[in-house]
Specification:
By secondary structure, this protein is α+β, with helices and mostly antiparallel strands. The protein has 4 helices and 10 strands. Helix 1 packs parallel to helix 4.
């Protein structure tokens, strides 16, 4: 008999995406207000997976929902700015202040390494997809968390917090497929 997964309490909400607990302590549900944003998030995860990066994505769950591994969010975001020729990152704390990596305290150096490397890799990995759409510049806003195993992992990218060079999600979905 299959275990029925039920949506529980709201854990947090961020720019059109809410994350809910489930009756399985290891899983959460990411729910978008917009079906295209959910579909684009899933396509972004496809790029993550094709380029051997790890995120907390488990599977598509509903019309506007993704099932994800539950994580403890880290108190900062990585902004990865990319063009067709270069990529750079900066760290933004929950208070909205931008910091150089060496200025950060409270997050282990190894986790900062994972966050920076993952953000740069994903920003570069999007070049062939977004380049086909004629997009020459984009910025990713990426969140990370700690899994129960202690591993630092990328949260499924929320396209509503990223500037992907176009607001035409249908076109972006096509090029990311």
């Amino acid at each position: 008999m299959e275990f029925e997964l039920l949506k529980g309490d709201l854990l947090f909400s961020n720019n059109g995406c809410s994350v809910y607990a489930t009756n399985d302590v290891d899983l959460a549900i990411m729910e978008w207000k917009d079906e295209k944003a959910c579909h684009l998030a899933e396509k972004l995860h496809g790029v993550v997976k094709r380029h051997a990066l790890h995120s907390n994505f488990v599977r598509h769950f509903g019309k506007c929902e993704l099932l994800v591994q539950r994580m403890e969010p880290l108190p900062l975001t990585v902004r990865a700015h990319s063009t067709v020729n270069q990529a750079s990152v900066r760290f933004v704390t929950d208070d909205g202040e931008s910091h150089a990596r060496d200025e950060l305290t409270g997050v282990k150096r190894a986790r900062l390494d994972v966050m920076e490397d993952t953000a740069l890799h994903l920003a570069r990995s999007l070049r062939p997809y977004l380049g086909q759409a004629g997009i020459k510049e984009w910025e990713l806003s990426l969140s990370f968390g700690i899994c129960p195993s202690g591993e630092c992992v990328l949260e499924v990218p929320n396209p509503l917090t990223c500037d992907l060079g176009s607001t035409d999600y249908g076109t972006l979905i096509t090029y990311l497929s």
